[in-house]
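R.M. (postdoc): so does anyone remember the format we settled on? I'll just put the structure tokens first.
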């Protein structure tokens, strides 16, 4: 019964990811935006991550008191996904760092692990739908390869970028860059996106 319940949850999660990607691609209107504390977003992601175990040491280094103008649910989803991936692909444990910095124009959030890393030839593909890192045993990592695709869509809609640096066998570092909008700038950017998608 437990196995049936777990598989049903995985299927539900898969369907929800399909629906999320479909929604993001068809409805570009940004709603429910608010100013969000970067530190609170990092803390929330750490608290909600299911794949981190006792041998994973998750540290937060938030060097900014900046706020991001965005959708709370979507940004939480991105950070939780990156943190879960860091734990999932660090089977031996090790440190996982969530670092945030900012300047006058943007906020940088970085998730770094000491896991298995990503081969260089796969770096261009990991944000593609259904692409999964070949670990030799897919049963140990799970997933269907939609998480990073969804994360990239959300970041783009927030006016930002996401990139990865990795050394195979040593670990990976995912960096999100998001603009620091004032209320006036945020309204202008949203209006511009709506006009472009009309």
């Amino acid at each position: 019964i437990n196995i049936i319940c777990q598989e049903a949850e995985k299927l539900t999660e898969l369907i929800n990811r399909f629906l999320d990607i479909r929604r993001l691609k068809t409805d570009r209107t940004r709603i429910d935006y608010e100013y969000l504390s970067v530190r609170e977003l990092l803390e929330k992601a750490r608290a909600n991550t299911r794949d981190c175990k006792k041998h994973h040491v998750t540290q937060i280094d938030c060097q900014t008191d900046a706020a991001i103008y965005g959708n709370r649910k979507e940004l939480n989803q991105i950070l939780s996904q990156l943190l879960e991936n860091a734990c999932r692909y660090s089977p031996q444990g090790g440190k996982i760092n969530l670092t945030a910095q900012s300047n006058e124009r943007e906020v940088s959030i970085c998730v770094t692990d000491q896991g298995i890393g990503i081969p260089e030839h796969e770096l261009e593909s990991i944000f593609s739908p259904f692409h999964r890192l070949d670990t030799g045993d897919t049963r140990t990592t799970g997933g269907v390869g939609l998480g990073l695709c969804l994360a990239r869509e959300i970041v783009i809609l927030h006016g930002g970028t996401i990139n990865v640096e990795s050394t195979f066998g040593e670990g990976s570092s995912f960096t999100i860059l998001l603009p620091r909008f004032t209320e006036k700038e945020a309204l202008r950017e949203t209006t511009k996106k709506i006009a472009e998608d009309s």
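R.M.: ...and that's the designed sequence above, right after the tokens. Also worth knowing: The beta strands are 33-37, 56-62, 67-71, 94-102, 106-112, 161-167, 171-179. The chain is about 40% helix and 25% strand.
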